[in-house]
């Protein structure tokens, strides 16, 4: 994620017809939002009491903050969003410039943009659990080697007790939340899924496109549970997810990174779709498994993920890391 901001800028500078076309598609989509689908809401952050900054990055212009709302723990993520080519003219013409210095042909300013062009993407987790707080705390991490047996004796008992709630997943599947954001759905109970924008994507530009597909089938916790029986499900997600993204955002499969996390944060099978070139958090080789590789591995060995040793990073304060240490596996 270290170069994410630079990458975004580089991608934004792409001037090929493809990029232009996707941006036009997005503008039409945004019109829908401006037509009133986005709602004003009460400011739940008005009474936010900051406890600490969990982590931040000046380069990526993001800050994770721990605090309290009405005496309950909350995590707030503030992120400055990328520039958008289609609003540049309005930004340059409609802003106020304050001169900082002028020297020969060089000058620097503070530009005060109109408020609607100067928004901050804000994510709130409230009430937040200790796990949510830890997830965003800057921490050293360690690579763990997990055999199939380690999974059954160490990881599985731990995640059965300690996992984050899946309520948000069930709300999506049951259309109790985010129903209007769904990009595509295959309602089949076995091979079906819901494809929608990830919480991390503000949908303002395709340069940092990020969607997730969530399976209707319950009980498949992660990559470890996948066998050749799931091939129709995985192939369906890959093909129909790619088609839906082509239709909606005009991005072909060759521009997409489609992968699963191991370990995931949420143990209900879901697949990440991000734009190739956007360094999404967690897209590194130590955590991301390309769906097309997963499919091929299961085709050559139906029990590949049940038996194989898998590596993944765990943060220093992760309870699962402590379990691996207790078992003498680290
Ligand atoms: P993961 O691999 O389980 O863990 O992915 P990660 O969060 O460590 O990457 C879960 C994905 O679901 C992440 O990309 C989250 O940003 C996304 N996500 C999490 N929540 C709570 C929501 C939500 O409420 N709505 C949507 N649309 N996405 C979410």
The CATH superfamily of the largest domain bears the name HIT-like
Q: Poorly predicted ranges (pLDDT <50, ≥5 residues)?
A: 1-36
Mean pLDDT: 90
Number of strands: 14
Q: Order of strands across the widest beta sheet?
A: 8-9-10-12-11-13
**Sheet/helix structural class:** alpha+beta
The CATH topology of the largest domain corresponds to: HIT family, subunit A
Count of discrete structural domains: 3
The gist of it:
The protein is α+β, with helices and mostly antiparallel strands and 330 residues long. It contains 10 helices and 14 strands. 7N-methyl-8-hydroguanosine-5'-diphosphate binds at residues 168, 178, 196, 198-200, 212, 261, 264-266, 282.
How would you describe the overall organization of this protein?
This protein is an alpha+beta fold and 330 residues long. It has 3 domains: 1-81 and 121-138, Scavenger mRNA decapping enzyme, N-terminal domain (Phosphorylase Kinase, domain 1, 2-Layer Sandwich), CATH 3.30.200.40; 82-118, no CATH class; 139-326, HIT-like (HIT family, subunit A). 32% of the residues lie in helices and 27% in strands. The protein is built from 10 helices and 14 strands. Helix 5 crosses helix 10 and helix 7 runs antiparallel to helix 8 (291-300). The two termini are 26 Å apart. The model is unreliable at 1-36 (pLDDT under 50).
Which descriptors would you attach to this protein?
disordered N terminus; binds 7N-methyl-8-hydroguanosine-5'-diphosphate; six-stranded antiparallel sheet; 27% strand; four-stranded antiparallel sheet; 10 helices; 330 residues; Phosphorylase Kinase, domain 1; alpha+beta; HIT family, subunit A
């Amino acid at each position: 994620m270290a170069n994410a901001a630079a990458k975004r800028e580089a991608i934004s500078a792409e001037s090929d017809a493809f990029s232009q076309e996707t941006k036009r598609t997005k503008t039409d989509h945004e019109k829908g939002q401006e037509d009133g689908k986005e709602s004003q809401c009460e400011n739940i952050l008005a009474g936010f009491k900051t406890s600490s900054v969990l982590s931040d990055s000046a380069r990526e212009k993001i800050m994770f903050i721990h605090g309290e709302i009405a005496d309950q723990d909350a995590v707030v993520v503030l992120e400055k969003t990328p520039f958008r080519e289609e609003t540049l003219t309005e930004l340059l013409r409609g802003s106020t410039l304050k001169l900082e210095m002028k020297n020969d042909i060089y000058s620097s300013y503070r530009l005060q943009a109109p408020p609607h062009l100067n928004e901050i993407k804000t994510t709130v987790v409230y009430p937040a659990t200790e796990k949510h707080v830890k997830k965003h705390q800057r921490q050293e991490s360690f690579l763990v080697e997990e055999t199939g047996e380690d999974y059954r004796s160490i990881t599985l008992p731990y995640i059965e007790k300690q996992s984050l709630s899946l309520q948000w997943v069930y709300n999506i599947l049951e259309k109790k939340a985010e129903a209007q954001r769904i990009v595509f759905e295959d309602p089949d109970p076995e091979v079906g899924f819901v494809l929608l924008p990830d919480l991390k994507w503000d949908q303002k530009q395709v340069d940092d496109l990020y969607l997730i597909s969530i399976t209707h089938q319950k009980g498949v916790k992660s990559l470890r549970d996948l066998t050749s029986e799931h091939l129709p499900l995985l192939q369906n997600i890959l093909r129909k997810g790619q088609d839906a993204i082509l239709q909606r955002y005009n991005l072909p499969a060759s521009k997409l990174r489609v992968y699963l996390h191991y370990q995931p944060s949420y143990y209900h099978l879901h697949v990440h779709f991000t734009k190739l070139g956007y360094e999404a958090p967690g897209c590194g080789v130590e955590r991301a498994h390309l769906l097309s590789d997963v499919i091929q591995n299961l085709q050559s060995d139906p029990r590949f993920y049940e038996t194989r040793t898998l590596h993944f990073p765990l943060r220093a304060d992760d309870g699962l890391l402590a379990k691996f240490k207790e078992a003498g596996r680290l």
